[in-house]
Amino acid sequence: MPRPNDLAHLRGLRSHLERSVLGQVEAVAGMADALIAGEMGHTRDGRPRSIQLLLGPTGTGKTKAVLAASAYLYGTGAVVRINSAEFSSEERVPLLLGRTDGEEGLLARKIADLRRRGGRILLLDEIEKAHPSVADYLLGIEEAAVMTAEMEGLARASVRRYVEQEASAHFRPEVLARFTAVLVFGHLPREVQVGICRQMVEEEIAFQSGTLSEKFGHPHRVRAGRDLYYRLLGEGWHRRLGARPMRNVVERRIRSALVEAQLRGALCPGVRESVLCVDTAGGVRATLARAPVVL
Description:
Layout: H1 4-11, H2 13-20, H3 25-39, E1 51-56, H4 62-74, E2 79-83, H5 93-97, H6 106-116, E3 121-125, H7 132-138, E4 144-150, H8 156-170, H9 173-176, E5 181-184, H10 190-216, E6 221-224, H11 228-236, H12 246-263, E7 273-278, E8 284-287
Parallel strand pairs: 1-4, 1-5, 2-3, 3-4, 6-7
Antiparallel strand pairs: 7-8
Helix pairs in contact: 2-3, 2-4, 10-11, 10-12, 11-12
């Protein structure tokens, strides 16, 4: 039984996931409930503390939810991640699960490494692309296992039924029955997309502010100007890939604007604030107390 302090921490998992993964309240609540039950010992001997199947379109927060939950519960480095698509053929399965002659497979090595580092979660991306024997084997490990499956739906209202039907086509009923949670991550409405973009921009701005403060030897604050979020959302959100390309767009645009400002000598020691704006041509620029720098 966890100690009182641990119980308080466990109670905070759901709200932490809701803040970290926007627009997926039902899915992250189910994830939190399943992980907490496992941590409190409510699983049968010989079974994983939690084994979850996360379904839904690409870029809707499945992997992010796993990483956020792991960091909250166990700290950094507590997840071992395997790309299941690399083990789709029967010939490649022994590379993951091991050979009959006793040669250890990638999975056993990953789990051993996970245990040495005190980790707790095994994440298998795109499990629907793996050979069926992979999912069968994973039902017997002790670690908490999370499997993601990229299954597209046509609309948010119908995505649950659609992806559940797709899951039934990929996994045998007895396999699906062993999951402690089957969670559907739906398409994200426009207002949630904006929130995700804002979250990524704020994270990158905080990082760049710290970098410039250390570089200049005094505090420097980077701020987001009007319309920046919508400009980056328009470039970073992909109809099929969802939010997946957005972080790269956010990091690249903000970094490029600040680097160009430094190269031109506008952003230098003594300047304590810069503002990232969108110009009339739609470009991102760093505006300072002096002249703006246009990219």
